[in-house]
Design brief:
single chain; alpha+beta; tt1808, chain A; 6-stranded mixed β-sheet; 10 strands; about 25% helix
């Protein structure tokens, strides 16, 4: 299935899908911790961007098209940030600079496949992965020469810094309302 066919496809089952190498892949509903982290980080980023007067927008569950096998892939991260002007409605988020995935124990292999696929998108500067089974984040940041690191930077305490949007938040604050903080 191509991206165009996917966008016009009706599954009839009320599930959310992403397109992976030409095949629709169902996405499970989020659990409470996942949803809370997605909402909290999205709200914090939105407020930060507005306070700075930034032209960037944060979008929940946007479609993004990787460079690899682009005609047959539309992946759906939990959050995406773009700094392109909002001109017309688009099915895919244009030129994302930051993508966020929230890692649940049941979807780890699929999530990591998406993360490594996101590195093929030329505009992406950072990819953040938040864990739902422990207070932890993993960050991939593109270097000045355009290369990606071989491994993620693991953050389990202190501040989370996202250079792509000049944003910082304490990991404890981000996870404060989840069951992990209790």
């Amino acid at each position: 299935m191509s991206v165009d066919e996917f966008l016009n496809w009706e599954s009839g089952d009320f599930l959310t899908y992403e397109l992976v190498d030409g095949e629709p892949r169902a996405m499970a509903p989020t659990n409470r911790t996942h949803g809370m982290l997605q909402n909290e980080l999205g709200s914090l980023i939105r407020n930060h961007l507005r306070a700075k007067g930034s032209p960037c927008d944060v979008v929940t569950a946007p479609g993004v098209i990787p460079r690899l096998f682009a005609a047959h892939n539309m992946r759906v991260p939990d959050l995406g940030v773009t700094c392109t002007p909002y001109e017309t409605e688009q099915a895919a988020l244009p030129e994302p600079v930051l993508l966020v995935e929230i890692l649940s124990p049941s979807n780890q292999p699929k999530t990591w496949t998406n993360v490594w696929t996101y590195t093929s998108i030329p505009s992406v500067q950072e990819i953040l992965v938040l864990h739902t089974s422990r207070i932890a984040a993993e960050l991939l940041r593109r270097s000045a020469d355009g290369a990606w690191p071989e491994r993620t930077t693991v953050i389990t305490e202190g501040e989370l810094l996202l250079d792509s949007i000049d944003f910082r938040v304490s990991l404890a604050e981000l996870y404060a309302r989840t069951r992990l903080a209790r």
